[in-house]
Every structure is written in structure tokens, then in C-alpha cells.
Amino acid sequence: FEIVQVVKPYDFPVAALARARSGARVIYNSHGTDFFPGDVLFRRSVDGAFACSRYNATMVEARYRIPIGVAYNGFDDALFRPQPPDPALRERYAPGGAPLLLYAGRLVTFKGLDHLLDALAILTKGPGARDAGIGSGAFQAPGAKPQAARPHLLLVGDGPHRASLARRAAELGIADQVHFAGAAPHTDLPGYYAISDMFVVPSTDHETFCIAACEAMACERPVVAARTGGLPEVVRDGETGFLVPPGDAAALAERIAALLDDAALRRRMGEAGRGWTLDMFTWDRVIERMLAAYERALACRP
What we know:
Blueprint: E1 3-6, H1 12-22, E2 25-30, E3 48-51, H2 54-64, E4 69-70, H3 87-93, E5 100-104, H4 113-125, H5 128-132, E6 152-156, H6 162-172, E7 178-182, H7 189-195, E8 198-201, H8 211-218, E9 223-226, H9 231-234, E10 241-244, H10 249-260, H11 263-280, H12 283-299
Parallel strand pairs: 1-2, 2-3, 3-4, 5-6, 5-8, 6-7, 8-9, 9-10
């Protein structure tokens, strides 16, 4: 082989052996960190590298002191495209025409879903809920939403945090507005995006890219996301959605409310998001960047 591509530093020793025996060039395609003690000893065996985001590339550069490009992650633009919503599915998760927020991904702590539940409580019970203690299910703040206008949240995916999220929703008095769909096939996701009003990514850490946000925008849904990790490279603040400080439920609620109150803004951001993803994140565009990294590595052949 002319090129051996690896995606984890744990593969560096095998790649270095292949390089020494065959003269193949080694390409490192980074999607995270996964560093281990002594991995820097293999950096001279890496002939080229690219990462899934500039955020991730910065971490790799700091660790290995090697030049690294950015190819981003790709999405299936044939699958993820706007489609008509299924009225029955929408009614199941947002009865009576209620607004519907969507999250799709693992139910783990660093996804920040506790803060999303807090934001939903603020949206439901009014701005006084935060100061009054949003954990009180009996509290009804001035300006609380009538039942039909209360936003619902659909969580698609599963994980170890599911039970604690269900308890948290009950403590906040919003259990009837939070729906757990469980794990779903990838091919079902466009249907969930279609019935939602927006996609929310409240992560607090570890997001090197977030393919789900990309897929949501490709389906013409605006995204409200935390300003952390690689998310600011995926979501264009004020154009394809909004970015908020991670862990800030009040800011999250404010931006969600701004979109819920303005259908034209949701439509405009959704259309802009699809255009952005088609320009940047289709597999054709990603492969162009990957091939450029291959060509640079082969040009350095001794």
C-alpha cells in the first residue's frame, strides 16, 4: 500500500511498523484525543494528518507538534434532506400543536441535557421559574405558558443518563413534556428532524464536531447549541442557529424562545443551514480535503 490511514493514536505503533517495512506513508485522521503515554515517540512516523475540526486539530498540534489540516466530518446528503412531517408522529410527541424541540444522540452527562431540561422548565413556567427554584414541580410563575403552548422535548437515543434525566424531568414538573424515543436507526432520523421546530445541542464538553447538528441543518432545522468544542465551526451563530454559553439554562431558554416566537426566523435559519452543510460537509467536499492530505504526504516520499 502507498498509504496507511489510522484514526487513533493507539494505531501508531502498527502504522510505524508498516511504514518501516513497506515505505507506505502514514496518515492520521483524528476525531478526538485518545492519547496515551509515549505516543509522541511515534510522531515522526506520521507523514500527514487531518482532523474533524479546527478545535480537534489544535489539540493534536499541541500534543504532537505536527502540521495538521481539517477535513471535517461528512454527512449523507441523499438521506438528510427536507421532507414533509408525519402528522401522526408530530401529534404523538407534540400534542395539540405544541412546539417541539429535538435532541438526538447519546444520553450521557457531558451532552448537557440536564441544562436543557432546566431551560424547558423556564420556558414552561415563565422567567420567574429560575429564581423561584425550577425544581419545584408545583410552582407556576407569572407568565407561565398555557398547556397547548408548552414546548415538548423529544430525546432520540439512549445511554446511562436516561433514568436520571427522567427523574430530573419529574422533579421539574415537566415529565409530561419530555419524551424518550430510545435508540433509532439512522435512516429514521430525517423523519424526527421533519417533525421538530428546532434541534438543540446543549453539550458541556468533548464535542469535536457533532454530526447530528450537521444533519439537522441539512434537514433545514435551526440549531441552538453550546459554544464549546467544534460546535462553533458547525453552527454559524445568528445565521444557521444560535450559540450559547455551555451550562447556561437561561441563555438556552432565551434563544429557544426567540426561535419559537418567530417562524420566519426558523425558516430562514433552516434554509441557511442546508446551504452551509451542502457547501462544507458533504462527503464529496470532505474527500477533496482528504485527497489533498494524501497528495501532500506522497509528495514527501523520500
